[in-house]
Structures are given as structure tokens and as C-alpha cells.
Amino acid sequence: MMIFFIHLAICAAGWSGAHALKLRQVSVPGYSRTGDTVSLHCDFDLEGDQLYNVKWYKGVKEFFRYVAADSPPKQVFDLPGVVVDRDRSSMDKVVLSSVTPLSSGLYKCEVSAEAPSFHTDSGSGKLLVVDLPSSPPRVTGVRRLYHAGDAAALNCSSRSKPAAALSWYINDIKAEQAFLVDYAPVRGPHGLETSTLGLQFEVLPEHMQHGVLSFRCTATIASVYYNETRVDVRALLSPNPSSLNGREKLTGSSGSSTTSLHPPLRWWGNEFTTLVLILITQR
Ligand SMILES: *[C@@H]1O[C@H](CO)[C@@H](O)[C@H](O)[C@H]1NC(C)=O
Ligand SMILES: *[C@@H]1O[C@H](CO)[C@@H](O)[C@H](O)[C@H]1NC(C)=O
Questions:
Q1: Cα–Cα distance for residue pair 205/208, rounded to 1 Å
Q2: Where is the Ig-like domain (predicted)?
Q3: What lines the ligand 2 site, CB under 6 Å?
């Protein structure tokens, strides 16, 4: 019965809201790189209440607690990927050292007031730790020269965690969806993922600008990473002579080359006969 009344009193105090501890903001950087030191801030206003404790959670697991009345006030709980810098952490902030992709997650700060109010407020923010690519996107399959009608088949790839989003541009214009070939990211060591985007299309005069065909591949990871690789190659409006040779060889091998030589011979033959006949009739 007594517990019930106390509970009622807490609820009443909670409802009144006049002087209640309030959490203003929890700041989590959103994105950071492997190896970075990350500060998480918990900005609260006691509004006349007395602080009881501040608890930090990653997901549902607590990893840091600050109890105002305790000595020492700071406690750290082991959690994979969460290395708390105890000295630099305090009542309103937690410093994580050397974050890894394992440190990614939802971080929650929960602040509680002392009796009699026992007000509690909480807020959270997401952290995504990325392993950035060690080099700009890699472009393969580029030829030194393209003729109109040639088939272009290129690949662009980039390795990171999470996988980078890739895009292709032809002469600085985003490539049509129909030209793109999506390959599933390939997992490598340390959870790194290699993403690959293919570009396949028939080179047309409209893709050439003053004898140049420009390919550009961009790699993006959320708002933390951007890089690109550009390759400019020569492009000619004339069809590829080697593919014409190829066609001639094809006709030759099919055995039609001899027949194709006959009509002119026959024509000359006929003409000769006609010429002779004309000469004869003139005599
Ligand atoms: C592009 O990459 C994919 C996947 O790795 C591969 O199967 C394909 O042969 C490559 N294409 C070119 C033109 O290099
Ligand atoms: C792309 O990467 C290269 C080499 O790592 C670097 O020098 C360059 O500054 C990067 N470009 C951008 C836009 O970040």
C-alpha cells in the first residue's frame, strides 16, 4: 500500500512538470572513421532537481555510469567495440577512443534525478564508424581509343566498410541506368566490402566531345567520404577499321568472296562483247 502511494506521488510529480530535469540534447557525431576518438555529449538541465545518475547505453547495453554521490563517481562496463576513456569522460560526456566499425550503433544517454522527484529523461543518437577506401575508385577496362560503334565495357570498384555507393558519368553527364551493370559487393578481410559498378554501352558520336570521351566514376559513403577517378580517352567519329577488316574476313571465310568478284568480271565481259558488236556493225 505504501509503495502504491509513493508510486502515485512520483507520477504526480512527473505530471506537474514545472521543475523537472530535462534532457536538452544528446550529440553523437553520426559518422566517424576507424581509429578516431569520439565524444558523445549529454546536455541536460536539472531545473532545480539534484542529479542522481547519468547512464550511457549502446543499444540496450549499459557501458558507462556516472553516479553523483558515489566515490569514484565513474563506472565503466565492458562492451565489445566500446573503449571508454575514463579520465576524459564526465557527468555530461563520454569519450570513446579508437573506434572501429564494431562501435557503430545507437547511443543513449539516460539522466535521473535524486529523490524526491526521480525524474528521468533520455535521448539517443546514431554512430556509424566507417573504414574509408585507401585509394580513389579503381577504373578498369578502358581502351586507349574508341571509334563510333565500339562497345565500351568498364568496371569501377572501391573497397571500404560500409560499401561505397558508385556512380558513372560519361562526359560529366550521369550514365543512363540501362548502361549500368550492378555487381553484388564482395566481402574481404576485416569485413571490408568491394563494391563494383559496370558501365557497358555502344559508343556513339553523341558521346564524343572534340575527339574526347570522358569517363568518371565517383565513390560516396554517406556524407563522410567522396572521391572520384576520371579517365579521358581519344574518340573518333569514324567506325573502327579493325572491325571492318573483321567483317571482310568473315565474308571471305564464308566462301562468298569469289562469287562477289564475278559480277564486275561479267560486266566487263558483256561490255567487251557489246563494244566488239558495235565495231563490227559500223564496218
Ligand atoms: C567487371 O567486374 C565483374 C565482377 O568482378 C566481372 O565479372 C566482370 O568480368 C568485369 N568486367 C570487366 C569489363 O572488367
Ligand atoms: C582522392 O584521393 C586522392 C588520393 O588518395 C587524394 O589526393 C584526393 O585529395 C582525394 N580527392 C578528394 C576529392 O577527396
A1: 5
A2: 35-119, 137-238
A3: 135-136, 226-227
Q: What is the pLDDT of residue 244?
A: 60
Among 196, 200, 217, name the best residue to mutate to test ligand 1's pocket (greatest count of ligand atoms within 8 A of Cβ).
196
What residues does ligand 1 touch, defined as CB less than 6 Å away? 140-141, 153, 155, 183, 196, 198
Buried b (16+ CB within 10 A) or exposed e, 180-205: beeeebeeeeeebbbbbbbbebebee
pLDDT tens-digit map of 266-280 = 333 333 333 333 333
Q: Which residues, in sequence order, are bridge partners of residue 217?
A: 168, 229
Q: What is the pLDDT of residue 190?
A: 77
Q: What is the set of domains in the chain, with CATH numbers? A: 21-130 (2.60.40.10), 138-241 (2.60.40.10)
Q: Which residues pair with 193 in a beta bridge?
A: 160, 187
pTM of structure? 0.64
Contact (CB, 8 A) for 55 and 109:
yes
Could you identify the residue written with the cell 572521391?
A: 227
Q: Are strands 51-58 and 93-96 parallel, antiparallel or unpaired?
A: unpaired
